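Workshop exercise sheet. Pairs work together: one partner reads the sequence aloud, the other fills in the structure field after running the prediction. Swap roles for the next sheet.
Pair: D.N. / O.F.
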Amino acid sequence: INWGFTIRGYLLDLSSSFVTIISKLVMVIVFLVFMLLGSPYFEYKVKKAFVTPHGSERARKILTTISWQIGRYLSALALISAVTGLIVWMSLEYLQVDFAVTWGVLAFILNFIPTIGSIVASIPPILVAVVQFYPSLTAPLITALTLLTIQVVIGNFITPKVMGDRLNLSPVVVLISLLFWGLIWGVVGALISVIIAAIIKIVCENFPMLNVISVMMGSGRIYQKEFEEKR
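Structure field:
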């Protein structure tokens, strides 16, 4: 097998995918900038749209809760991503894999995509390790095992769990939202999937007829504490 030719093909495909991801991230940032520019006037638009004081107050409460929850989500996700990037960098540095800092930064960025991003971030350094340590496969296998352990544990267990507790969302809801919105909108959908799920839950929470949906989307911990306190 011509490993050099094979790995080069994988790296070219990966580079193309990475450019696509970056372009979509830029699009998300552009949308975010325009939303922030219009945010100072949003309160007045809500007051104008909901004529009655009760309707205006309910809308304001929903928007405040959404803003607070999203802030908690992004701060927790940024912290988890930073820890992931640091662990990946230190592990690859210890294993003497080339460009360890680059792979740490990549792990930090892609970790913002729940579940899938953390696994995708493991592929480039593994391919580099195969080329770097060829013909030996011991070092690449150790690299793969180390990275996959880090990414699977953090991306598939810790992140959904922490995010679910922060937003009071069930980990199952987090994963379903990721798959659904990722299927519809690709990378952009995966990036905002948890935020969309949180917004849906908060809106349902403020309407009695939809409250059952909000309860079923929740993590259950809060409700467990409520019932235990009543005993």
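Discussion prompt: The mean pLDDT is 79. What would you look at next?
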